[in-house]
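Section 5: illustrative case.
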């Protein structure tokens, strides 16, 4: 019969030591608290940060990210964060100054800094220009000032299309900005953030290659898609597609414009209208009925950015006209 290797006092010492190691690890692993505006940015933050980061999304699922204003309780939640990862959304432009003033320690990171931005999509001006279905790909023929109605879009950035996260090329830039910010805030884990970023970028590259292969084979005459809310301008630009929009920023088309949209959509032969779950489907249903199209959901705010984009691209591919 063998004697126990540890005497009782030795066992207690070992247990205390193990507990101490446990506490030390727990203290080390307290995640870096970050706040973001929309769910796809949370996805980028979690891919880069892994367990070292905990991200809070301000715009609730189903809410309109363009007209959103933070509630006092959410302002307090941001106050608990070390970093705010901005993509230059309208409410971020309007509120981050105030949030930062109330929380001097909060580091606001412009993850979209240095991104090239598209002009605000056309087709959202409902003031009687006689616009038909508009292509977001093109230039801005009305001039920016005239295109924007501050009453509808508080704190809106007049200059550019705010949906900067919907294309792989842009996501690469945003994720890299996030990794740089995490490494600065938590230098001890810089190598982890760098490795996570590299792994994520490999997946983004694979998706990008897949989308290029999918869309490059198409004839130039078959590259248009019809969408209620023009959230996909950056994706369209990268893969040579043309986004035709019914609405912009929550504004319904006038009856006159509605007629023009229906005529042009019929002429182009669109059989799908892409809608997003955050918007009312009433007008889209009216147009769908008139042109014999069906509604398909394409959500620019889905949290699982990679899987969502793969699915959306597949849907676009099947609907292109
Ligand atoms: Zn939008």
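Designed sequence:
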């Amino acid at each position: 019969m063998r004697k126990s290797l540890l005497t009782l006092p030795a066992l207690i010492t070992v247990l205390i030591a193990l507990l101490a190691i446990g506490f030390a690890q727990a203290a080390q692993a307290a995640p870096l608290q970050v706040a973001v505006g929309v769910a796809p940015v949370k996805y980028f933050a979690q891919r880069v940060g892994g367990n070292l980061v905990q991200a809070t999304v301000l715009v609730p699922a189903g809410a309109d990210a363009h007209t959103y204003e933070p509630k006092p309780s959410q302002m307090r939640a941001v106050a608990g964060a070390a970093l705010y990862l901005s993509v230059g959304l309208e409410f971020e432009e309007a509120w981050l100054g105030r949030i930062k003033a109330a929380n001097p320690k909060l580091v606001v990171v412009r993850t979209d800094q240095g991104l090239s931005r598209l002009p605000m999509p056309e087709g959202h001006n409902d003031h009687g220009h006689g616009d038909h279905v508009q292509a977001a790909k093109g230039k801005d023929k009305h001039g920016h000032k005239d295109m924007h109605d501050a009453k509808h879009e508080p704190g809106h950035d007049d200059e550019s299309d705010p949906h900067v996260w919907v294309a792989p090329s842009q996501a690469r830039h945003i994720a890299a900005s996030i990794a740089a910010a995490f490494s600065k805030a938590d230098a001890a884990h810089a190598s982890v953030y760098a490795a996570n970023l590299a792994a994520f970028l490999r997946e983004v590259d694979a998706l990008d290659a897949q989308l290029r292969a999918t869309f490059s084979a198409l004839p130039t005459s078959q590259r248009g898609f019809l969408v209620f809310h023009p959230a996909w301008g950056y994706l369209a630009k990268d893969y040579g597609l043309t986004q035709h929009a019914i609405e912009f920023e929550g504004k319904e088309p006038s009856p006159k414009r509605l007629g023009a949209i229906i005529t042009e959509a019929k002429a182009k032969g669109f059989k799908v209208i892409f809608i997003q779950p955050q918007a009312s489907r009433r007008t889209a249903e009216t147009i769908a009925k008139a042109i014999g199209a069906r509604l398909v959901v394409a959500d620019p705010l889905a949290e699982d950015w990679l899987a969502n984009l793969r699915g959306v691209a597949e849907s676009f591919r099947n609907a292109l006209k």
